[in-house]
Each structure stands twice: as C-alpha cells, then as structure tokens.
Amino acid sequence: SRRESVASSIQVSPSWPIVLFGAWALFAATLLGWFLVARARFMRSIGPRTSATHTLAGNSLRHLLRESRLSRDVRLTVSDRLTSPVALSADEICLPSRAMSELGPVRIASILAHELAHLVRGDPAWLTIGYIVADLGALLLLVSLIVGGIGVYRMRDGKGTGLLKATLALS
Predict the structure, then answer these.
(1) pLDDT tens by residue, 99-143
(2) C-alpha dihedral over 97, 103, 107, 111, to 10 degrees?
(3) Which uninterrupted H or E stretch holds 63?
(4) pLDDT digits (tens, 9 = 90+) for 12-57
(5) With the C-alpha atoms ordered 102, 47, 85, 75, is the resulting torsion angle positive or negative?
C-alpha cells in the first residue's frame, strides 16, 4: 500500500478565534444572567409594594409632576423592607414605609423631587444598560488584549512540519 500526497490550495483558517468568541459569548451570557438574577433577588428582597397614590406623598408627587409639566404617569409605592428611596423603573418610585411615618411633608417632597429627577434623566435605564455593557465588555477587554497582544504564527522545525508558536508582543 503506497501513500500518495496531494497538494491543496485550500487554506484553513485557525479555529481559535471562534473558540475565543464562543468563550466570550458564554462569559458575557453568564454575567448577563447574573445581573438579571441579582435584579430579581433585589425585587424580591424589597417584598410586596403597596400603592401610595392616595397619601400625602402621592399628593406631593402629583404636585411635582404638575409643576414640572411632565406628562408621564409615575407610580408611587411603599415597601416595608426598603431602607432608602429608589427609582425602580422608568415609571415607579418606591419609598420605605418608615419615610411615610417619620418624615414631614417638606422632606418627602424633597425625596420625591430627587427620585423624580432620576426618572426624568432615565437613570434606571442607563444603570441597567451600564451593567449590561460592563458585563459584555468585561471579557471583550481581555479578548482584545489576547488577540492584540499575542501573535500566533507558524514556524518550521527542522523536519518540515509546521509548529504554532505564540509570542507576547509587548509594544
């Protein structure tokens, strides 16, 4: 049995970029999943929220919305487990129930104005986008350092076979 060698002009690209991209995608998906789980845990940790629409704080929020000429609906809720006010989403402000009983109307109005400013600027959305971009970009930086900083090339050994050698390019 005689072996014949056939020359081919087909060039096979290295599979390491695909593997690297797959690792990045897996890592990014894991971080994104972690963020979504952390957000769900936070929402569960503050417990059930009750509407505070028909309270003095609700009146104060309606007054702020009228004065600021905002035409959006903003829900005001209260949670027994929350320790500080928070703009939960694009249309919800949640206050700790302690604030309703311990703070006066002027302080409540100040807190609501502050949280309303977060909603107007879109801070809850930007915060979510920021976490997602940071999660997706965390490994991207590593990948760019690896791809940009390590050159992979073929070199020939004395036997005519190709060897892959990675070198760290510190430039």
Answers:
(1) 998 999 999 999 999 999 999 888 888 888 887 777 767 656 665
(2) -10
(3) helix 56-67
(4) 666 777 777 788 788 878 888 888 898 899 999 999 999 999 999 9
(5) negative
DSSP code, position 10: P
Q: Rounded distance, CA 49 to CA 79, Å?
A: 5
* Phi, psi of 76, deg, nearest 5: -115, 120
Per-residue confidence (pLDDT) for residue 154, from 0 to 100: 44
SS3 56: helix
Torsion of CA 31, 37, 43, 48, to 10 degrees: 180
- Of 33, 39, 16, 19, the residue nearest 136 (C-alpha): 33
> What Rg value do the Cα atoms of the chain yield, rounded?
28
Cβ count near 117 (within 10 Å)? 13
Give the 3-state secondary structure of residue 70. Answer: coil
pTM for this prediction: 0.65
Name the residue among 97, 67, 73, 72 with its Cα closest to residue 85.
Answer: 97
